[in-house]
Every structure is written in C-alpha cells, then in structure tokens.
Design goal:
CATH superfamily of the largest domain: Thiamin diphosphate (ThDP)-binding fold, Pyr/PP domains
Largest sheet: 6 strands, mixed
Order of helices and strands: EHHEHHHEHEHEHEHHHH
Radius of gyration: 22 Å
Distance between the termini: 55 Å
Helix content: 40-55%
Number of domains: 2
CATH topology of the largest domain: Rossmann fold
CATH architecture of the largest domain: 3-Layer(aba) Sandwich
CATH class of the largest domain: Alpha Beta
Number of helices: 12
C-alpha cells in the first residue's frame, strides 16, 4: 500500500516521514486487526441504534478507521485523547473495556459516568479520554488547555485532538491552534477532512480543499496524508507525537478520508452523489490494508475470519452484560417509587411524578 504524504510545511519536520521507515510485521498486523475490530464495533453500534435501544443518536466513523487507529494505537495511558463526536472507536483503541463502552451507550447506571452523560459524549477518565463537547471547535480549546497544563508540569505527556475540517474555520477553533503554536505546546491535531462538515461541502467554506494550507499561519508543521492509508497515518502520527513529546511543539495532520454514512444515523446524507460515495468505498482502508498485507505474505482469509469470529463473541458478551443493568432513569424511578411507598406507609404525605 503506497503511502501518499505531502509535506506542506517543512520547518521542524524531517524529510523522511519516520526516523525508521520500516514497520514491523507484527505492528502491521496489529494495525489491521485494530481497524477490523473498529469496523465491527461501529457496525454493531449502528445496528443497535437502529433498533432504538440506545437513548441517543450515533455518529459513525465507518470508512475512517485508518486515521483513528494510525494516530492513537501507540499512545501511552498518560496521554490524553480529545475526540470529536465521530470518535466512538477511540475509546476502544485506547483500551476502554467493551463492557464499559456498551454500558455507556445503553446509558447504564454502571457506566463510567453512571449513565448521566448523553451516550454520544463518550469519555473515559481512567484512560484520559475527554468527554466530547457539543461544538467540536470549542473542544479544541479544552485540548489546547490540557497541553498547556502538561507543559507547565514539565512532563512528556502529549495530547492528540481529533477534529473534522469545519472547526478549524471557526474563530474559537482557530484561536486554539494559534495559541498552541505561539506556546509550542505538546499537542497533535488530527483533522479528518471528509470534504464536508455536517452537510456543507468544504468548497463552499474555503478556497482550498486542504485544511493544512489554511493552517500555515499557525507557526507549526502541517502534513496532508492519505487518511485511508493506515501505514502513512501511523508513520506521520508517530513522528508528530514523538516531536511533541520531546518539546518540538504541535503538528497538524490533515487526513484525507471519508465517512460512509450520514453525519448521524438520522441523516440520510442526500446532499452527496451516489457516485461520490461509491468512489470512496472503493478506497476502503480495510480492503487496502488487506491488499498490502497480502503482498507481504501476512494476510489470509482464515486469519481475518478468526479475528472477526472471536471479536463478535466479545461484542456479544459485552452487550449481554450492558443489557443486564437497567438505565439510570429506571434506577431513579424505582428509588422515587420506594421513597413514595415509604412515606405513604408511614402516613406522611408526598408526591410522586412520572415523566
């Protein structure tokens, strides 16, 4: 699989994409396995959403697995991930247990946030994954603030912040990136440029399709990479992360990729042509990685089936555990009813309201 990388701002970024351009066979297989599992996880979440078993809409990243896996797979536990609304799979990549992920999706009272957050706002404090803000551009302020705190503490932790192409065009997102450049903060911004924001084409937002060109004024390196190429994403992200960790400052990685489904499950995405979607599906990052591994003698259909079958079983088990725990609303309803019955039996007056 050819890596397609365009270095738009060379200052501070070596010409070679990675000090050691060779990635081990084990790492290549790990990248593929993680991408395949992310695809299976996303598709299962979409099915359950359509069954109306989650209490919120779902924002799928199907088609964008290479960008997420390549950038986050080797992060340390102490590193912070700041997701956008379409980064459900980052929880899995950074090691959040599947049971915790599905408890969050189901709004379970035993989820990491006790079921009180909207499922689309998925974070996990033990893994340093920030809850998602409603506005992705505002999220960049939080990410940049965490990077500033790490710099003040003089540790070598990094922040990896994910965004789509729209937030960098908004004032408060733009200001966050400028501040990071001025302060030389330890942060990597990963922009998945999928040609449109929620529904508006990027061509109606700026004169260029390249977010990295708009970002040249920030004062730090910007790289445009084929976001469907897991090898390219991994090489670029690893160099950017190590650069930030060693005091070299921020990097903006623009990953050219594409979301297969609408902005959310309720969005039929009629604003794009069927031909456009089919063209990008032909660039499926998982299929591309399979061809690459096949060329190196590292892939077989039997190996893929083994990974898929085992992970589907893990998904089944995690969902079964999540379904056994009632949602927070049911817990609160039962508590209120118990309180009402206690007051009633003791002769005290009380009121119990059902939504």
């Amino acid at each position: 699989m050819a890596t397609k990388v365009k270095d738009l701002v060379a200052d501070g970024m070596p010409n070679s994409i990675h000090p050691n351009p060779l990635i081990s066979d084990d790492k290549l297989k790990q990248l593929y396995s993680a991408m395949l599992k992310c695809r299976l996880l996303e598709e299962r979440a979409r099915i359950i959403t359509k069954q109306a078993k989650f209490k919120d809409d779902h924002y799928a990243a199907v088609g964008q697995e290479a960008a997420a896996v390549g950038a986050a797979i080797d992060l340390r536990p102490e590193d912070t991930v700041v997701p956008s609304h379409r980064d459900f799979i980052l929880n899995f990549i950074k090691g959040v247990p599947l049971t915790a992920i599905f408890r969050q999706l189901y709004g379970s009272s035993t989820s990491p946030d006790k079921g009180r957050s909207v499922p689309a706002r998925r974070g996990h404090a033990p893994r340093n994954i920030l809850n998602t803000a409603s506005t992705n551009a505002a999220q960049l302020n939080f990410a940049t603030g965490i990077a500033a705190a790490n710099q003040m503490k003089k540790n070598d932790n990094v922040v990896v912040a994910f965004l789509d192409e729209g937030p960098a065009s908004l004032g408060f997102g733009d200001e966050a990136l400028k501040f990071a450049g001025a302060r030389n903060l330890p942060i990597v911004y990963v922009c998945r440029n999928n040609l449109r924001g929620e529904s508006v084409s990027v061509k109606l937002q700026a004169e260029t399709d390249d977010t990295s060109l708009k970002a040249m004024e920030y004062g730090f390196p910007t790289i445009t990479v084929d976001g469907n190429d897991a090898v390219a994403m991994y090489r670029v992200a690893q160099e950017a992360i190590e650069r930030a960790r060693s005091g070299g400052g921020p990097t903006l990685i623009e990953a050219k990729t594409y979301r297969w489904h609408g902005h959310a499950e309720i969005d039929p995405a009629k604003y794009r042509a069927a031909e456009e979607l089919e063209e990008w599906k032909s660039k499926d990052p998982i299929a591309a990685m399979e061809r690459y591994l096949t060329g190196k003698g590292l892939f077989s259909g039997a190996w893929k089936k083994k990974i898929s079958d085992a992970f589907q079983k893990e998904l089944d088990d995690a969902i079964a555990v999540a379904q056994k725990t009632p949602p927070l609303e049911s817990i609160e309803c039962l508590d209120s009813l118990s309180s009402f019955e206690s007051q009633h039996s003791s002769g005290r007056s009380g009121h119990f309201f059902r939504a």
